[in-house]
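TL;DR need structure tokens for one chain.
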Amino acid sequence: MEIQIISTGSSSSFAPIIGEKTTELMERFKRKLDQEEVDNLITETTEILSHCTNPHLDEAQSATNLVVGYVQSGKTMSFTTLSAMANDNGFRVIVYFAGTKTNLLTQTTKRLRKDLINNGANNQFYKLHENPSLEEVQRIRNELQISTKPTILITVLKHYKYINALADIFNSQQVKNVLKNNAVLIIDDEADQASLNGYAYKNSKKESLSEEWEEDEYTTTYRSILHLRNSIPNHSYIQYTATPQGPLLISILDLLSPKHHTVLTPGKQYTGGKTFFIDKPGLVLTIPDEQVYNSKKNPLTQCPKTLVDALQIHLMNVALVVCIFKKENYLSMMIHADKDQDASRTFYIWVKSLIDMWTEMINADENDLAKIELVESFRQIYPEVIREYDKSTDIIPSFEEILTQLPDVIFDTNIELIISSNKRQGDNKEVDWEGSPSHILVGAEMLNRGFTVENLAVTYMPRYSIGKSTADTIQQRCRFFGYKWNYLKSCRVYLPTDTCIEYAEYVEHEEEMRKWLKENTNLEAVEQLLIISPRLNATRKNILSINTVQTKLNGWRKMNAFQMIDENIRFVEQFITQTIFENDKDYGTTDRNHRFAKLPIQQVIEFLSNFKFSNMPDTARKQATMRYLKYLASKENSPLEHAYIIQMAYAGEARERAFDEQTMKLTTNLHSGAQFQVKRSILVMQKFVLKIRFVFNYIKLNLNVILSVGAGRSLIH
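>> reply
TL;DR here they are.
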């Protein structure tokens, strides 16, 4: 599958305006943001949009940006503001990849309807579609022709079926004729999930030792995203994530690689990892090892005591914060036991049984022994509820005052089992947050990344990992991060001891990574810092199999970059003028005389990175080569430090090579002769002016990479 990559040279001069829609949205956001927070939001949104394609130029363009925020820190507010500003600046369509589950799709659609359409007040300026099919082509075409020039908002599930259907809409003649080269935004929420191609792990498991990437598989979602991008002449692809480690560490393929990045500033009321694990560690309570759940190692058979404690704290928090202090209209508790749905059902049954039992006990006579015992158990845990409050400044009610509120709180507690196979509730069920003062949500993957548990105060997460957790995975489970300053003193997080340690270590890494991203405009520099960071040992893994290294990274390979020829030529010419080469010994003819440059391995990686490809197999080979170089460079013992780039036959005359314009490939060999009969991995960029080989030896591996780039002729002999 060939992918067209469009020039981005003209988009850099775009200067966004702050127009009517952005101003109107900010006036509504001022109800919850102060002026400094509004100014930060405007500044950062302007920066993001300024790196997008220029909507005022009637030409094909593309751009890719990365936006990094904290977990639960307001990324949705950022991209709704970006949407309003895009409307002000003439972007006609905005596509949102709204997660991999329908509850996230519904959540995003609902948020856009509220923030942008403003309950119908702005329906002449925005038109909203959810998972549209070809049947909606005519409607979308008509909306693009409305005189008010509304921006078409399209939320779509991050699944190949729906993304391909959207690509078919953009490829339809009806939409093409109307949209033309008008600007389109593609906003990928949680961009490190599902969007990237998972070929390396999947293909490394194959028994086949095929030397060609053309025979490998590509994740269907990744392929569909490329298909969608190829169907829109003028588009900007914006990747939003709180955990960019995966994309940075695995080197996002050229086809999805960001050129610019923006780090979002959280609001002043935000409480994240730094709050819970550094500033206020007393909010985190440990679950004893014997009460930590694991379906294989420790399948609990009865409700653990810490869960009972957490439930009682939650109920008394509601009595305190909602009923007495009236700081919030409701509070929530989340229970995340294990990815196994049976575990969620087990914990749901325990919680429901406890609430049912307490409902019966609380109605009993004052002299009932069961009721007396229940009240006493609440009384004993109450000191933990008020532990973070300051007795000198906070008016703390007595337990007896709390006790008067407890019956109604228990009676009015909403308990939800949030799992995808729950037919009654389903993965598309919306929680009626305003309907009850107390919510308890039990689930796992459905409560993972992207899902917002509103007013979450108590988190119980006894999840036990047999191996070392990956940093980005455990961070995305942090639904307990968010804007909680108003009731932070009532927040509690129950975690296993090992998980607490992992989170504390992650917070250090996250702050360091954000610092790197703010200080470096070049993502390659950030990526190199991540590679050498000792804190990332748990996540930095070389998932290229030995078969991949021994077969696909050895031997001659032709690779094509014809769609990117102009950009590649400019890069190569600049590289040659800026690099000092040394001459090899004189072999008597220009065909056999070469010169070389010894460079640090990172510069060689950057050299490869700057060559652009526009089809998946060739991009895959290049990406795997870079990843293997980085793996070798990161080894503690005898790391690979340097490599040689050799300009071969640099003074020789060019040779023409036959070229098939339909397949966009050379039809003849670029290499011949006895001097080439060694194992090599070849990257061929064009029929051109330059033949470069870099050579390195590591243990038993001898990998030679030849790169040729050019326009119309070749100097390869």
